Amino acid sequence: MTRFLAALLGTALAAGAATASAQSITVALNADIRSTNPGVNRDDNTDAVVLHMVEGLVGYRANGSVAPLLAESVERSDDGKTYSFRLRQGVTFHNGAPLTSADVLWSWNRYMDPKTDWRCRSDFDGRNGLKVEKVEAPDDRTVTMTLDHASALFLDALARTDCGGTAILHKDSLKPDGSWDKPVGTGPFRFGEWRRGEYVTVARFDGYQSPPGDKPDGMVGAKRTALASVKFLVVPDASTAKAALASGAVDVAQVLETDVPELNKTKTVEAGFYPSTTKHTFLFQTRDPLLGNVKLRQAIAASLDIPQLVAAVTNGEGKPNNSGVAVTSAYYDAVQAKGYTYDPAKAKALLKEAGYKGEPIKIIANKRVHVPSFNAAVIAQAMMQAVGINAQIEVLEWVTQLDRYNTGNYQMMSFSYSGRLDPALSYEQFSGPKDSQPRKIWDDPAVQDLITKVSTISDEAQRQAIFDELHKRQMEATPLIIFSNGQEAWAHTKRVQGADPWEGKARVWGARVVGN
Amino acid sequence: MLHFVFKRIAMAVPTLLIMAVTVFVLIRLIPGDPAALMLGDLATPASLADLHERLGLDQSLPVQFGIWFGNMLHGDLGISITSNQPVLPLVLDRFWISARVVLIAVLLASLFAVPAGMIAAWRQNTGTDLFLVGTATLLYSIPTFWLGLLLLLFLGLQLNWLPVVGYVSFSEDPGAALLYIVMPVMTLFLHEMGVLIRMSRASTLEVLRLDYITHARAKGLSESAVLWRHAFKNAFGPTWTLIGLVLGNLLGGIAVVETVFTIPGLGRLLVDAIFARDYPVIQGCLLFVAFVYVAVNLVVDLLYPLFDPRVTAE
Predict the structure, then answer these.
(1) In a domain? residue B25
(2) What is the mean pLDDT of residues B146-155?
(3) DSSP letter string, B238-263
């Protein structure tokens, strides 16, 4: 018995020691990944893990612009329809094979094959407007892609994280029968093991060729890693993740905003907030008999003390933003910074003008842990009631809310949009024809024309002018109230530095272990 | 006996069929489209149509049911929408993980609770009785998620005796596996012990009031002989039935405990599938849970005559 207990204790100590092994860290995921197949069967956790192993021709910088990644340079023809990608020299796949233009062609053809189920195929085959008509490889290091029309969003679409960054994969990623096996990419980590429901491990790729840069910058910049391995461990419960951080069993985790002050009081953990382009909003159904009245929507906007609301839902860390352009974007300027003003007297006057007679307005919200939907709805309800609006809250499970969003079946909704780095894509998320897409919020053909225009032109000044115009129109029409961008609460143990997440996703190639 | 077994199995068939239809219909009555959920706010009409087609959700409900039911009769519960894995092996894999925790916990709880309940009944209205009933009520009243978190904070964080997160299978490393399941087992053990102590006490009290117990005492038998030789068998019957129900219930899913202790078991699979509207997995899990419930109770019924010979299979 004594020997058995000693063996158990030995195992426990070994388990403890394993967590502190040099240059190996454990990152908590709140749910298991869906697959290892880039852009196919995915969610945010899947993208986060997979993008440690694969890379595309281009990737996002932290400010939302697109930069070469596997490409050394990208040239666009004068008519804006042909893109020429020159590949970086010396890049190899995890199996040691050198990256060539043939691999790019193979990857592209695989993505465009309906059997692959690549979620972004419709963004490149013409069904969503843009069509890649031709992809060629004139030599080993050059790939050209020809579009049916000029598009300012083509590189963005290639870089999108939900598309798996349109990762360039080696043929060995597939089994002999053509089905998916594992990612054999060019990323800083190579695939280790996936125990479904438990964890995914990745190990440093020693043959990695980093893009230029002295520090990580979004999905580009310096990507050579000091870590030997990373274990992405599934920890669904936020309280357990917090305990795991405090015990050192987990090094990096997304945490609840409310836990940040408490975690910062511990000796071993540091917690903070990281911005993302996620948009936290109140949506209005502009076809609702009540909320179809723009005066009423403007009254609601005037009734909200947005800085106070944002401070309350982000523990004082968030910055209000009423624009579709994220505060981290290169296009966020003084015009975008101009938001709604809290003015209860104006709200009451607008209510009178709108002929509002105290009819109930229902705000749909959900209680997902890492979005402020419910908390924001409660605060908005109180502020709206203070000016005489009969605001009520209906809490729904997230999938049910999403269904109501997709069908447009609501009056008002506290809703968070996933991040969009290019502002044109951000505006496109909520603008469009309600008849064919009931989920769209802002149905204005003139606005749609502006979005189409800004999606085709590349000149930054012209684009800025259009984004400014869109913001002014949005503030006037108030089809929705964007109140802030994401402020994601993350924590890490003090033994690990440089594990800053990006866009709400774990990103640890810049991390290093500095203590025990 | 064999006739009884076949009869009980035959009786389970309509139960499972009704369950299959009910689960299929109910899950589709809940609002939410798995394809829309997978694509999120990034969905376009084209990508949504693609995914509906791939998942077979573009077919009418009767057609979907017909395909699923036909495959089910051949032992094929379908493919998970979210993970692309075959449902039956997935459910079985996760079930064995949950089953280990549940079986150990219920076994330990039974071993402690039955004697404790009998002693409480034997010492009715004494300090011992009050202590045992009070403890049982307290244990039963504490929600498992809170009890689990308390254990996690105390044994894992404060004392650093046990790993806070993770799971190791027995086939991989039995020693480590044991360490990782101590807290979940302890959580269930403490909670279920509360339930079983109360049942054991109540049924023993009833038996101790019967004439044959008075007769045994009048014969001059010692209290331990009266209790263990004469009262135990009759008093254990109702507790045994409850153990069966508890076991069936827990084997059907201990999602909360699995979530707190990061155990990739059946309960977590089911809850995740519900949130993802992964219809094949939800259907497979619930059907399997119903089957386990029926099977466990069948075994309990078949073993009942061992404790109470008055009850026979016939």
Answers:
(1) no
(2) 93
(3) HHHHHHHHHHHHHHT--HHHHHHTT-
